[in-house]
């Protein structure tokens, strides 16, 4: 979907320019105008401001066929840092990224139990993590906390709970953003992959539940109440398994990490060989996935069946949105990703509605366990680079 | 989803301004700036051009608390006309609209059989229809032809068939657009309802097959190859009925007009009472729908079951995209719309993921049989008002 008109020189243009410079690594002002469709004067103004703020810098020049050499500009990676906390199914992952999306810090810590001391606990973690990294404090732009749907303070989250987010913000003295894990992971993939804004894509996020995130023209698609992406509650069987959500046949009941572990525990053969009952969901899932990858037929059959179920829901999504590109991410894809990818590719090749017009690229995330945390940190950096602009709109 | 930044004064701004004036009926320049976020000088320039081109005119003034009265501007309805041809399952509907989206001409004619004489036949129909309406020829801006997926010349349509579209364009001496019926219907609903650009919505289009159209922030969502909206190929049963598309359980096989008529013909009781075998699909469907609305229990049960199946797929879509508003349209909704709406509302109230945060409005189209034709004509008018801008991007 090509952009067809010049965007205004508003806060969105700053975000656009920074995105383009970031994905190009180094680029001239003339090329920036070509790519963004903004006017030369707009580009010059914004580039001047960004240089003054230290966000970008000039890094050399290249010869030009039209005469004088063009100066190249690049992101100044260490000028801004963002921190992301991902509250995963069993652990918490802390990520720090620089302005190019490069991970400059990563730490896995236990989750904080209960909500009573949540704000205090997360603020303490933030201090410990950033102090340990020895990043210049004044360049840390804030914290984003991502979790499955109901995290306190997420836009559209449970009423009356924004206090937790605000409490953390007060304790650390920096802005705090709350976001859905699957949506953040999609943004994380957008940043880590240097995808261009024209390439829309969908992320399948496999964790305790199943989520999705959609990046259309460089922006997260959010829906009426910031709840878009509930792939787990796409029904694949109208008369199927009951789901706590009230619906039947939700794919989450067949293909999530939780569903796989339930099935594995119910399999006498598997549960005899693997200590599944003694292990929490995330660990037990990894055991099954590791066994499957290593050739255990029962474990493989179980994951392959989950992958077949997930493929049905994802194909429906591809048909509905005519997606050309999918990224499989989330902790559930870390070990078993290739099993899911193989099934999904085969199913799409056989059944996707647009298959005669274009292929559907199915990619595995390079950092499936960290994508949500990276995306969280990216949210912070993005908000800091273009304060008036909320790309997640 | 509120717009968060000022759009540029490009061709898109013309389209935006015309949309806003159209939905406001009459508006002042100051209000236009407030609503669009464009600067006063941009508004003044564009409004001046639009007045010079006769697209809008000043229609009076209102007092202002700040002093001098503000002039009101309105669309000049008869300054431009668009023609839309909808190739329905059995008939062809010709629609002419003015610049406010008002229908100024409507005619139902037989479909043209075969593709051999298609271009000639459609060009003849265009001449007969527009001549019959006695619209000023120089104000007719073009023709849009909408049909289910594979219409020749639709963007992303079958390769090597654009000749038909080009042939018609040459014969009538005007631009010809080809488009998918469900996508056009969504645009038709956007125009007829004067929905504001901030209200995103999804259209469920029930015809021989099932389609959907999504309008996000005033623009049709198209996907990677103009194929978005294949709601009919959302699977509601991974082990269900085989579909010619290659997949299983596609909701189209359970809830389309075609599926309903197949089920009705297989019902000995119903097919004894209604002359279904002697009637083509669209007519037979209407018979069943009319019987259901008039209290025939077998006909009602059949449509109610179809509606329950469709509700499963639509709820998946609502969960995936967090839609707050749905419009049910297409010929299949003309008589049986309330049966589908009742089922869908009940299913969403019980199972939609965001139901605790917001209700999901389910509306019936005011012109379910004509929405695709109206949307086709709207595509023409939209393209004429802002030539460089393709809102359907």
In short:
With 393 residues, the first copy, chain A, is of the alpha/beta class. In chain A, helix 4 packs parallel to helix 5 and helix 6 crosses helix 13.
Provide the fold topology.
2 copies of one chain form a homodimer.
Chain A: H1 11-24, E1 27-28, H2 29-36, H3 40-52, E2 56-64, E3 67-75, E4 81-87, E5 91-97, E6 103-110, H4 118-133, E7 140-147, H5 162-172, E8 176-180, H6 181-193, E9 201-206, E10 210-216, E11 219-220, H7 252-255, H8 257-265, H9 268-273, H10 281-293, H11 297-321, E12 325-329, H12 333-351, E13 361-364, H13 371-385
Parallel strand pairs in A: 4-7, 7-8, 9-12, 12-13
Antiparallel strand pairs in A: 1-3, 2-3, 4-5, 5-6, 9-10, 10-11
Helix pairs in contact in A: 2-3, 4-5, 6-13, 8-10, 8-11, 10-11, 11-12
Protein model, in words:
The structure is a homodimer of 393-residue chains. Chain A is of the alpha/beta class and 393 residues long. Chain A is 42% helix and 20% strand. Chain A has 13 helices and 13 strands. Chain A has helices at 11-24, 29-36, 40-52, 118-133, 162-172, 181-193, 252-255, 257-265, 268-273, 281-293, 297-321, 333-351, 371-385; strands at 27-28, 56-64, 67-75, 81-87, 91-97, 103-110, 140-147, 176-180, 201-206, 210-216, 219-220, 325-329, 361-364. In chain A, the strands form three sheets. A five-stranded mixed beta sheet of chain A has the order 6-5-4-7-8. A five-stranded mixed beta sheet of chain A has the order 11-10-9-12-13. In chain A, strand 9 and strand 10 (210-216) form a beta hairpin. Chain A is globular, with a radius of gyration of 22 Å. Mean pLDDT of chain A is 87; it is low at 1-8. At the A-B interface, helix 11 of A face helix 11 of B.
């Amino acid at each position: 979907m090509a952009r067809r008109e010049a965007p205004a020189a508003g806060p969105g243009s700053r975000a656009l320019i920074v995105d383009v410079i970031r994905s190009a690594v180094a680029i001239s002002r003339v090329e920036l105008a070509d790519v963004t469709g903004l006017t030369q004067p707009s580009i010059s103004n914004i580039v001047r401001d960004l240089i003054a703020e230290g966000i970008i810098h000039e890094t050399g020049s290249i010869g030009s066929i039209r005469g004088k050499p063009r100066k190249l500009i690049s992101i100044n990676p260490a000028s801004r840092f963002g921190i992301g906390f991902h509250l995963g199914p069993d652990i918490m992952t802390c990520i720090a990224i620089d302005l190019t999306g490069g991970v400059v810090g990563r730490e896995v810590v236990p989750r904080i139990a209960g909500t009573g001391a949540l704000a205090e606990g997360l603020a303490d973690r933030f201090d410990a993590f950033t102090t340990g990294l020895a990043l210049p404090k004044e360049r840390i732009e804030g914290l984003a906390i991502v979790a499955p749907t109901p995290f306190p303070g997420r836009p559209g989250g449970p009423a009356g709970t924004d206090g937790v987010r605000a409490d953390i913000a007060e304790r650390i003295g920096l802005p705090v953003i709350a976001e859905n894990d699957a949506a953040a992971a999609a943004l994380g993939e957008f940043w880590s992959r240097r995808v261009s804004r024209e390439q829309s894509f969908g992320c399948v996020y496999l964790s305790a539940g199943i989520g999705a995130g959609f990046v259309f023209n460089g922006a997260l698609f959010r829906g009426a109440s910031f709840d878009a992406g509930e792939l787990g509650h796409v029904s694949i069987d109208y008369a199927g398994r009951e789901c706590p959500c009230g619906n039947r046949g939700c794919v989450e009941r067949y293909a999530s990490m939780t569903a796989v572990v339930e099935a594995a525990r119910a399999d006498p053969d598997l549960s005899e060989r693997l200590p599944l009952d003694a292990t929490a969901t995330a660990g037990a899932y990894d055991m099954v996935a590791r066994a499957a990858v290593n050739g255990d037929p029962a474990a493989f059959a179980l994951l392959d069946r989950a992958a077949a179920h997930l493929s049905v829901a994802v194909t429906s999504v591809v048909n509905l949105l005519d997606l050309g590109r999918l990224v499989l991410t989330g902790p559930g894809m870390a070990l078993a990703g290739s099993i899911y990818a193989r099934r999904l590719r085969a199913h799409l090749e056989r059944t996707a509605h647009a298959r005669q017009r274009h292929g559907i690229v199915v990619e595995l995330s390079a950092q499936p366990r960290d994508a949500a945390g990276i995306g969280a940190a990216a949210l912070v950096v993005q908000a800091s680079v273009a304060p008036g602009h909320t790309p997640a709109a």
